[in-house]
Amino acid sequence: MTTTGVFEILGFLGIVLALARPLGVFMAGVFEGERTFLHPALGWLERLIYRLGGIREDAEQRWTEYAFALLAFAAVEFVLTYALLRLQGLLPLNPEGFGTAHAPGWAAPMTPDLAFNTAISFASNTNWQAYSGERTLGYFAQMAALTTQNFTSAAAGMAVAIAVIRGFARRESKTIGNFWVDTTRAAVYVLLPLALVAALVFVSQGVVQNWDAYTRVRTVEGATQVIAQGPVASQEAIKELGTNGGGFFNANSAHPFENPTPFTNLVQLVLMFLVSAGLTATFGHMVRDPRQGWALLAAMSLLFAVGAFVATAAEQRGNPILERLGVEAAAGAGQPGGNMEGKEVRFGIVDSALFATVTTDASCGAVNSMHDSYTPLGGLVPLFDIQTGEVIFGGVGAGLCGILLFAILAVFIAGLMVGRTPEYVGKRIEQKEVKMAMLALIATAFSILVFTALATSAPLAKGSAWNAPGPPAANAANAGPHGFTELLYAYSSATGNNGSAFAGLDADTPWYDVTTGVAMIIGRFLFLLPLLAAAGSLAAKKSIPVTAGTLPTGGGLFVALLVGTIIIVGALTFFPALSLGPIVEQFLMNQGRLFSLVLAVPGGVPWL
Amino acid sequence: MAVTVAAAAREERRETPAPPGTPALLPERLRRARPLFDRAIVGRAALSAFGKLNPARLRKNPVIFVVEVGAALTTVLVARDAAAGRPGLAFGLQIGLWLWFTVLFANFAEAMAEARGKAQADSLRQTKTRVMATREAKGGGTESVPGSALRAGDIVVCEAGDTIPGDGEVIEGVASVDESVVTGESAPVIRESGGDRSAVTGGTRVLSDRIRVRITSNPGETFLDRMIALVEGASRQKTPNEVALNILIAGLSLIFLLVVATLDPFAASAVAAAGAGRVPAVTVLVALLVCLIPTTIGGLLSAIGIAGMDRVMQHNVLAMSGRAVEAAGDVHTLLLDKTGTITLGNRHAVEFLPVGGVEEAELADAAQAASLADETPEGRSIVVLAKQRFRLRGREVADPAARFIPFSAQTRMSGVDLGGRQLRKGASDAVVAFVRGRGGAVPAGFAEVVERVARTGGTPLAVADGPRLLGVIHLKDVVKGGIKERIAQLRLMGIRSVMITGDNPLTAAAIASEAGVDDFLAQATPKDKLDYIRREQAAGRLVAMTGDGTNDAPALAQADVGLAMNSGTVAAKEAGNMVDLDSNPTKLIEVVAIGKQLLITRGALTTFSIANDVAKYFAIVPAMFMGSYPSLAALNIMRLHTPQSAILSAVVFNALIIVALVPLALRGVKYRPQSASAMLRRNLLVYGLGGLVAPFPGIWAIDRLLVWLHLV
Predict the structure, then answer these.
(1) CA A295 to CA A288: how far, in whole Å?
(2) What is the tens place of the pLDDT at every residue in B252-296?
(3) Is residue B275 within 8 angstroms of chain A, CB to CB?
(4) Which residues pair with B337 in a beta bridge?
């Protein structure tokens, strides 16, 4: 690892930590209905939405009503997105004519199964992209269907987090807030202003924002190159801020129009962690004990830092096989060294590995390099980040919910060891909470493991309507453990609502569209609903005063306990699978074996 | 066997290194309870471990049930392979055998706890000797019926020498009763109708006089019956904590089931990709599953609960439910009765305060003389104090010239007429009146001294020699030795102690500050107590209290832990959720410690159990896949000999660790009063880190042994 690399990772973390508390306290004010400095400018919008939606600001909901609202909202989002995607041929702002008879020859159709997958993907804040943006979607569909979803699904996630926080903060309360009000406030006062500022920053750095037709240029070689255009900056900002990750272009943040400079790269990194880091402070503020929030943030930061350093070191170390062939792997003046396959030269090793760690920690899924090309160990980090349940910062809202789930488990397992019924921030952790936490954990483990198992063993014939290449494993671009990792990553990413692609997997077939779609639903709703149920149960409880006999959950010991629980639970669930994927591959690479591309997917491997 | 486990066990045995003078929270009796492995008990438990193999019974324990299903499956597969004459039978056979052992060991743990409970119950049951009762017949007269035929509401007559046939309440008469069968205390106690000493327990014996007793419980529902059922585990309900923990370990088991089930297709694809190795046999997958699911805590969970109840019982406390014992661990506030818990029952003389120029020695001499015939503890303490301070020997009580004046409620004085001197001691106003009646005067400063003594929580006793008022004896409530340290320990654990007393606020405050309690309730009426409890509970706190009177009943019922004194009324005992057979209110503190110890034991073994899995992965995963990917041998950090020896070692370790931890489960982990964070740090280190590390040398050693014995 280079010294600059170390400083860059720590400096980035420093920025995030510095912003967490101010934003967190601001958000607490927003969700508790206080007047903030943004109310004079944006209050009208909030009121307008309430009036249009017939929402009563003071109408409180029980957890069941809250959960129903969340589901209803997602269902409407899904249907709307599906319709917009399928009907884009009839919609304006479609200069390339996607979805119409005169679409260019290189356009990829938005088939029903792909639209189903994409609609779920955006409604669940996953933004798994089985489609290729610039080859499939017109501007109206991109903006109205996808950018809008980026705001709403993120806002819904934040609303759930706030409801779960209320479960801890409230005492003997039957209700946990109002989903519609929380979602509106999240969008109006948090996401919209931040996204606006970020979009302007991006435009200033050269991110495009237009409704122009694609630019066609004649290259010096005499070939015609089509350069995609579009309203990119506006989607880019919320893509990172809302940890959505669905790029405007297929190449996502590796594309120079999405992420042109190391500065935009840094801004994108910060945006990905910003809201989730802030929500830990919101938690501390709302339960009236800031240390509780800091402890969660510390656990997240620790897990992030370990991942970032391991991934960066692994990538910087490079590929020993190439090194043996005489390729210079050391970083030097003018060259980054290490494993640069699949990475942008303008970012180099550290910006790429850091981005890979952050995007998988944060359940964002934006990528600025191809994770598939990482060394096995470097690729293991993003995969394990997702498999820990997207709690290392995690998705906006969902990340806080996830780490609270692990806090509940950690407190329950180890809390008994202080000789008391386990308590967390004044609430007893009892049957209902444990049941719900386990349910969420089982659901995600089920989705990742069972779908991967099905993909490795489903006996589909070549040319099958479900999957033209035959067995789903045949869609993997590589043989051996690397191919297995590609499958495991796909279902981990979908279930974790991450949406990043390991790449190297042809995921646009009915089989993958449907299975990853179901995985995304499980990962989103069978994860959030149990937490809402737990919140409902917690809110109804009395708050137990803190004494010297209370398990301390605001200090270093608890942070260690929480980190240990997250790693051990994640490791115990996925170690056997990982050992057949990246772990064995790393050993094999050290012995000089690689797994080459084994098959040519018709039309080339997407995203490459 | 695992080194760390042995070390942990050793640590359990080591005496608590308490600083000198600090009484251990758990008294001596708890720590050297019945020998852990009594031969008869082990025999009984081993036998019943087989009886518990019945799947219908085992289903209640999902983790061990899964092991049994796995064991059965392995057995069938081995039988099939044997029939088909396939090679490699020995390995499958051994795996199957050890899986059965795992189930048996778990059953044994539970059976051990139950058997120990049964032994306890049997000794209780001996008190239920078959007695004949003299029942008052409906139409008048009496009839002789067997004790077991008595129903609630029957009235029986017990005379000297009779054994009381059932739990009841004295409705007429007063008698001295030998309750040693229940309490172990040989001194007889008085039971009388009315008041707070009216309850009698079946099995105890009337020593003198005659009482009429109204039976209060039906056969099979007496305290003893309920307790016997509880310790035998027959009527044991899972506590909410246990249910939640069961959900956790069942959930983990389900996750591991997913892990192992999906491993088959994963392995198949790995075999296909590598073109080498074999998909792990079902036997191996079952072995992996059993190693991963939390069998340790699954096997020991109910044993821990039963043993906790048993420990309470060894303290001579009858807990009505496991829930009550756990609630004791959760308690935030202890309401402690002043008398008997915080102070000795009696006041002691601590100083002589002369007034009006009298020498202290003269006062001491007079006070001693006036107390010579006073056999009350207060009187004796005056004699002793005078002896200590001025070497005044007790004079001959049989002095024919001396005429002792006993205390009476009218005069509120006692004393002696000795050689023309009239020495008196008593309540200050009574003595003042006595002095004035003989023409004496009250010296200046007397009133101040009296008030000062009262203000410090003491009782002033004036002493006069005829018309001369000599001074004041300061009688003080003596705070029990060690109680201050105990209360400090409670505070360390985050438990507030509140002193309940009928004294006036001035006296109460003085004693409260001396004992170091956090709060006190002076001139407490039963309603005050109830209100106090409700206030605490409204603030989210759990409250424990002791009580014996009928008017304590509402508070006992309201409290989260209500420890009723066995000497108290039936109403009090019904209202509380525990009964102390020794009627010792200090017991409350010990009950709290036992409750905490129970919870800690459960948490420690859960953590240990889950942490163990990491090492098992390192044993089994490389063993399973080394055929396909030889480079995975790098994960075989224990350098286990062969894949077979690795898998078998993990299974054997997994089974043996249950047995190894049985003593810990039954005895409870070491418990020392300390703050939650200190306790967490220590237990995380021992059971978390220990659980992570211990299996590595354990599995390694078993592997060596198996290879040495040529078993693999």
Answers:
(1) 14
(2) 999 999 999 999 999 998 998 888 888 999 999 999 999 999 999
(3) no
(4) B500
Q: Which two tokens stand for residue B101?
A: 């052992």
Contact list in A for residue B632 (CB cut-off 8 A) is 579, 583-584, 587
Chain B window 478-507: which residues touch A at a Cβ cutoff of 8 Å? 491-496
Two tokens, residue A145: 């269907």
- Per the structure block, which two tokens stand in for B597? 């110890």
Residue B687 contacts A, CB cutoff 8 Å: yes
The Cα of B603 is separated from the nearest Cα of chain A by a number of Å equal to: 5
Sheet (strand B168-172) strand order: B142-146, B132-136, B155-159, B210-215, B168-172, B199-200
Distance (Å, rounded) from C-alpha A544 to C-alpha A420? 12
Per residue, the 3-state secondary structure of B8-66, as one string, reads: HHHHHHCCCCCCCCCCCCCCHHHHCCCCCCCHHHHHHHHHHHHHCCCHHHHCCCHHHHH
**B145 has pLDDT over 60:** yes
Strands B205-208 and B174-178: antiparallel
Distance separating alpha carbons of residues A464 and A523, to the nearest angstrom:
28
User: Please, what's the b/e burial string for A106-119 (b: 16 or more CB within 10 A of its CB; e: otherwise)?
Assistant: ebbebbebbbbbbb
- For residue B241, give both structure tokens: 């904590």
Mean per-residue pLDDT, A61-78 = 96
Give the closest residue to B678 by CA, choosing from A420, A417, A561, A562: A417
pLDDT of the residue at B115: 84
DSSP H helical ranges for A137-191: 139-140, 148-169, 179-185
- How far is it, in rounded angstroms, from Cα A199 to Cα B520? 64
Whole-angstrom distance, CA of residue A146 vs CA of residue B141: 94
Give how far A1 is from chain B: nearest CA, Å.
Answer: 24
Rounded to whole angstroms, the Cα distance separating A505 from A485 reads 10
Within a 10 A sphere around the Cβ of A519, how many other Cβ atoms? 30
Which residue from B minimizes the CA distance to A593? Answer: B631
Domain boundaries in chain A? 23-258
Among B241, B254, B325, most A C-beta atoms within 10 A, so best to mutate, is: B241
Evaluated on CA atoms B548, B549, B553, B555, the torsion sign reads negative
Comparing CA positions, the residue from B560, B532, B545 lying closest to residue B334 is: B545
Q: Which residues of B touch A168 (CB under 8 A)?
A: none
CB contact under 8 A, B680 and A575: no
CB atoms within 10 A of CB B373: 17
List the single residue in B262, B269, B493 with the smallest CB-CB distance to A450: B262
Positive or negative CA dihedral for B607, B609, B615, B621?
negative
Q: What are phi and psi of B200, to 5 degrees?
A: -125, 150
Q: What are phi and psi of A356, to 5 degrees?
A: -60, -40
Residues 6+ apart with CB under 8 A from B295: B63, B64, B67, B102, B106, B609, B654, B658
CA B351 to chain centre: 39
Dump pLDDT digits (tens) for B202-241.
Answer: 778 888 888 899 888 787 776 667 666 766 655 567 888 8
Q: In angstroms, what CA-CA distances link A438 with A131, A524, B49, B297, B707?
A: 34, 15, 31, 17, 40
Contact B494 A550 (CB under 8 A): yes
Mean local confidence (pLDDT), B175-201? 76
In the block, residue with structure tokens 């409880």: A541
Tell the residue number behind the tokens 């661990």, with chain if given: B329
Beta strands in B137-261 (DSSP E): 142-146, 155-159, 168-172, 174-178, 189-192, 199-200, 205-208, 210-215
- How many Cβ contacts (< 8 angstroms) between chains A and B? 218
Cα A376 to Cα A310: distance, rounded to the nearest angstrom: 11
What is d(CA A249, CA A258) in angstroms, rounded to the nearest whole number? Answer: 8
Of B121, B123, B33, residue with least CA distance to B594: B33
Here the ipTM equals 0.93
